[in-house]
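Example 3.2
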Amino acid sequence: MTKILVIDDDPEFCETMESLVSRMNYTCESAHTLRDGLEKLESEAVDVVLLDVCLPDGNGLDVLPRVREAPSRPEVIILTGKGDPDGAELAIQGGVWDYLVKPSSIRQTRLSLNRALKYRADKQTENGPVSLNTEHIIGTDPGIRACFDLLARAARSNAQVLITGETGTGKELFARTIHENSARSGHRFVVVDCASLTESLLESTLFGHKKGAFTGAGADRAGLVRLADGGTLFLDEVGDMPLSVQKSFLRVLQEKTFRPVGDTREVRSDFRLIAATHRDLEKMVEKKTFRQDLLYRLWSISIRLPPLRERTSDLKLLVMFYVNRLCEEYNLPNKGFGQDFFDVLRAYGWPGNVRELFNVVERAFVVSGGEKMLYAMHLPQHVRIAVAKASLRKGLAEPSGDAPEPAPASLPSAPPDPSVLFQKRFPTMRQFKEQAKKIYLEALIRQADGELSQIMKISGLSKSQFYALVKKHKIRMPGRK
């Protein structure tokens, strides 16, 4: 039977949703924390999740990939009491079905639920499971796994694909994987690096030229668009394509015909386009440096690849894969790893992403020579220096465990007048202690700006103890409704 899971810390809202869902003849369950919600998703089959953003133990948007990657792969509808345009953008980029702001009408909620369930039913009966060859893409992190669903859809279709992501995240690898899993896999995968070609060279490189069309054109030359006939044309760093060429290429994309430089005849090419860029094309459109109509043509399917710092759980897998490959290449026995090796790698920021990681690992591999283990000492100095500096800065910013207790400034500037607590009648000792606890917690939350790690450190409470006290004394956390 269809099941809906509501993850929200407002009991009254959960009761309202349970009543609504039961009238729709579906099963509904509630969870008041992210932890409980994720546990239910791991153990139960759920069709749709109604997910709040501000919860006692975190932000719903932060765990969105884990929710969508749960065993039953549920659809997600964000329901929040705080309208946030940036949050809506992040949610939609994360694959949610809808983003509704409370109080949302019963009609709107019912409509969104029904549409999400219909979409889910259509998706499940569409083509059944698809077998993909993704042997070259390493990763099990929810962020990269979510990209696999889009990769599968792209491979099944002939639509244009736009792959975005920072430099070094593997955009060309994803493009090749789409091509190799598509109906065009028997034909060429042709790469055009738009960033490495001048405006004059790009047009002749794409469309080809006739002999004598310009100085140096000593013979006819077929362009890359022609070579991609029947296969896939991959435009790498499409954001660097000059505006003049964008106009010409838009017509080629629409008509699948083009005219080589210096020729009078039209040539046809049946190619599938995949484009990639690390730039923000929407901002470029606003600045008039990229054509809006071309962006719309490229945007049939959009895949955003997460940077390595957002998928550090994959770091060890990537390193082991690459080291094993290097051992085979150099005909050496497999190497082991010292714990400090991965400690340093996890602490580094990886601005160059997976490409930089592989470069760093290869340098460490070469430095280690015939040694059986890789240690942090084998890593390049710039990586170790960056990690050491970051660690020292963190140490200066945070007091050590041996430091004296925080000065009274971490509490209210002056203790409250006890008479404020006794306006109606003098309390019992137990009542006084409970009121004092509430004052302490409210002051502590203000002092730490709601930062849980800081609250835990100062108070000495566990998270479960803290949440129990917050609930008992009805204290509102910053950012909550």
